[in-house]
Amino acid sequence: MFGKSIAQSIKMKVKDLFGFIGTNNQKDSERCENLTSIPGIGAKNCNNFYDAGYKTPESIIAASDKELLSIPGVGMSFIKKLRNTLGRI
Fold this sequence. Notes:
Elements: H1 2-18, H2 28-32, H3 46-51, H4 57-62, H5 65-69, H6 76-87
């Protein structure tokens, strides 16, 4: 799990430097359109979720807290906000 997190972090840093890894010829806005509908996920961090394999809001909602914590930039405050928001739906 720790190695996966490091690999994701390195991949994102390389992507930031070169701007082409993992884009699959999609604009970031297209990749993130659905994900940004979740409170706490904005245009800036949606690529972290997408690159970690969470490409739909449903996949994020179904993920365990432990799985979400392995995504760079995700902390307990995001998870609490996500779970609290879902509790009101």
